[in-house]
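Hypothesis: this fold can be encoded by more than one sequence.
Test: take the structure tokens below, design a sequence, compare later.
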């Protein structure tokens, strides 16, 4: 029997690479999603619940559109003197006033309505009293639930004027995300994403974070397919079939790719060398014609944007 036809039993190693038995890892999630016994990642069937029909695609488009609207709203407030807690309140108020839900609030114990990751924080920064100062970069990661469907995206925003290094790592992450999107075609493999991102990071001598992935998204916040941002052979073999929805969110570090998670809060991931990290994220729907970006903003940086430092250098 070919490996891509194999059905996992409860005592087999989980497909996610965690090293745990399937029954103690993703079996419950796969079965509750209607998958029954999970089939190896390379195989995609029309009955796969991850393949959205046109009605579901429209719901994901609506979720992505609101999330992009929220990002445009928040960006105007990111200036020196604002706290990350202030940003969180803006996100919560705007989302709930429009009748929607902040997906991160209460998710696996996370206590805030968004993530705010400043300077050497790679991801999952918890909003609070931290004041943003001139020269900081902050990644604002927003996920909203609109009529049961998730929209997800993030941007690295400049707080006033920033250094040339900050502008370069931000540019690298932004370019890498778009190059990865442009590398996609119907039924291509996930590994094309990681290849495109690594090539761009290598150009600047930066590194790609390996511990945190992009992910499938829909009615669930996190699901298949898993999206490594480097050329990972295991998850990279999965097919991106029309109807799949997922995020691409490269985290690019100036120094080492390695991270450490704050033991006190269990969430905040820092670069181990204290150097800067930048990230951009979009939610992508694979269609029969190719990738469709669902979280495009109207006033944020568009494809081909050039970021500038305080010295005016891109």
């Amino acid at each position: 029997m070919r490996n891509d036809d194999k059905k996992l039993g409860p005592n087999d190693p989980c497909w996610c690479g965690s090293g745990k038995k399937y029954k103690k890892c993703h079996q419950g999630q796969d079965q509750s999603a209607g998958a029954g016994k999970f089939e190896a990642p390379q195989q995609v069937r029309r009955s796969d619940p991850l393949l959205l029909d046109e009605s579901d695609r429209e719901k994901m488009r609506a979720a992505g559109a609101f999330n992009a609207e929220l990002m445009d709203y928040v960006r105007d407030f990111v200036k020196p003197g604002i706290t990350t807690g202030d940003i969180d309140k803006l996100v919560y108020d705007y989302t709930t006033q429009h009748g929607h839900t902040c997906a991160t609030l209460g998710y696996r114990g996370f206590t805030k309505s968004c993530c705010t990751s400043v300077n050497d924080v790679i991801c999952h920064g918890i909003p609070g009293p931290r004041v943003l100062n001139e020269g900081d970069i902050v990644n604002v990661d927003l996920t909203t639930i609109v009529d049961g469907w998730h929209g997800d995206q993030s941007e690295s925003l400049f707080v006033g004027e920033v250094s040339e290094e900050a502008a370069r790592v931000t540019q690298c992450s932004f370019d890498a995300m778009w190059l990865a999107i442009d590398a996609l075609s119907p039924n291509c493999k996930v590994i094309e994403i990681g290849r495109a991102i690594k090539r761009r990071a290598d150009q600047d001598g930066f590194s790609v974070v390996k511990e945190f992935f992009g992910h499938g998204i829909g009615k669930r916040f996190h699901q298949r397919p898993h999206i490594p941002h480097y050329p990972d052979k295991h998850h990279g073999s999965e097919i991106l079939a029309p109807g799949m929805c997922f995020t691409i969110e490269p985290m690019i570090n100036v120094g080492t790719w390695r991270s450490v998670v704050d033991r006190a809060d269990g969430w905040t991931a820092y670069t181990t060398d204290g150097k800067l990290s930048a990230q951009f994220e979009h939610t992508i729907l694979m269609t029969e014609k190719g990738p469709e970006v669902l979280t495009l903003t109207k006033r944020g940086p568009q494809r081909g944007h050039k970021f500038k430092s305080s010295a005016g250098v891109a």
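Confidence is low (pLDDT under 50) at residues 1-6, 32-44. The domain at 52-293 is CATH 3.90.230.10 (Creatine Amidinohydrolase).
Hypothesis status: open.
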